[in-house]
Specification:
Strand content: 15-25%
Mean pLDDT: 90
Strand order of the largest sheet: 3-2-1-4-5-6-11
Low-confidence stretches: 337-358
Distance between the termini: 23 Å
């Protein structure tokens, strides 16, 4: 089998590439603007990297789709700050460019595995989001934060309709996948990365963690290894269990408020650095969504998936939130320059935080 991953240098694409090359005999072709996460695959006989922008190299992308068996278009803008500050750019990549890929995949009869998003549920009031029954509730047009969710939702609907015309598709909806190497936590700009790397950056710089609107909103965090395991179950199963289906991929056991997430990170970081945690009133500060993201921001109060459909594939998430955070801290943080004895990360890892390499 030949797998085409568009946006293959990203957090999910690089992790999926690693798993495929390590455990299957499939060929992997990755297209992306850069390759820093993929350099250790150079020379692998079943790996091909093509540097380029799928938004402009249409003929080349069409040929790549025609030459493969499965298409995973993972390229996307994935941070709320981008949705708010560059809504048109978000739409052009996350809808227009992806629509062209979807149509070409349908035209060539290839199999499509499409990354939707947990954000399509928007401000749904359900306690647990069901892929087919839950309402998809987005905010007012003036709040440009919703352009990403709207783009993904509309593509979900187009793909579903193309399925009635013969497209072999599976849609998956990631719920806050996280893990080592996710984003650049050294970038101090507000919203420059997703929430966990952003918080780690605050800790590294000795800054209080900024909680947008107090951090009462709840999210479901899913460790990258669990997410990739779910994708492998989908890739392995071409039959009725996955064809024409939508799957939430998340870990309901890791549903937590952003404030509680910050508290756990503060505790784990202090343990790693072998020092007492600071008082929480000094370690966290509340900021408004307007000040942090700018005009056009709005948030949903909670996002928790029902994963009954994914469990029917024989998949279930395994990594508990605190364990996943330990793996990130152990893997990503630099050794303290002033430390003269054993690296505290060694003790930390021995307590249960083995590092995953992505």
């Amino acid at each position: 089998m030949r797998i085409l991953i568009l946006g293959g240098n990203g957090f999910i694409g690089s992790a999926l590439t690693r798993e495929i090359l390590a455990t299957r005999d499939w060929d992997v072709v990755n297209l992306d603007l850069s390759s820093h996460r993929l350099e250790h695959f150079d020379g692998h006989r079943r790996f091909t990297f093509i540097r380029g922008d799928l938004r402009v190299m249409h003929d080349a992308v069409d040929r790549l789709i025609a030459d493969c068996d499965v298409v995973l278009p993972l390229a996307a803008y994935t941070t709320p700050a981008t949705y708010v500050q560059d809504p048109i750019g978000t739409f052009e990549l996350d809808f227009e460019a992806m629509l062209r890929v979807v149509r070409m995949t349908a035209k060539t009869g290839r199999r499509l595995i499409f990354p939707s998003t947990s954000e399509v549920y928007g401000m749904c009031a359900d306690e647990s989001f069901d892929e087919e029954a839950s309402q998809l509730v987005l905010g007012p047009i003036r709040n440009t934060r919703w352009i990403y969710a709207c783009s993904k939702q509309l593509l979900d609907r187009v793909i579903w309709a193309l399925g009635d015309q013969g497209l072999n598709f599976t849609i998956f909806r990631p719920f806050n996948w996280f893990g080592p190497g996710q984003d650049n936590f050294r970038d101090a700009r507000p919203g420059s990365s997703r929430v966990i790397p952003q918080f780690i950056g605050h800790l590294l710089r000795g800054e209080p963690i900024q909680l947008v609107e107090g951090g009462d909103q709840c999210r479901t965090f899913t460790y990258i290894d669990d997410g990739i395991d779910a994708l492998m179950h989908i890739l392995d199963n071409e039959g009725a269990l996955v064809a024409g289906q939508i799957f939430n991929i998340g870990n309901p056991a890791n549903s937590i408020s952003i404030r509680d997430l910050a508290e756990i990170l503060i505790e784990e970081y202090a343990e790693l650095m072998d020092r007492p945690p600071p008082p929480l009133e000094e370690a966290m500060v509340t900021v408004s969504g307007l000040d942090y993201y700018g005009k056009g921001y709005e948030d949903m109060r909670h996002r928790r998936p029902c994963i009954d459909r994914a469990r029917r594939l024989g998949w279930s998430p395994q990594v508990e939130l605190r364990e996943g955070l330990r793996r990130i801290l152990t893997h990503d943080l630099p050794k303290p320059a002033s430390h003269t004895g054993a690296d505290p990360r060694t003790r930390f890892a021995a307590a249960g935080g083995g590092a995953a390499i992505l």
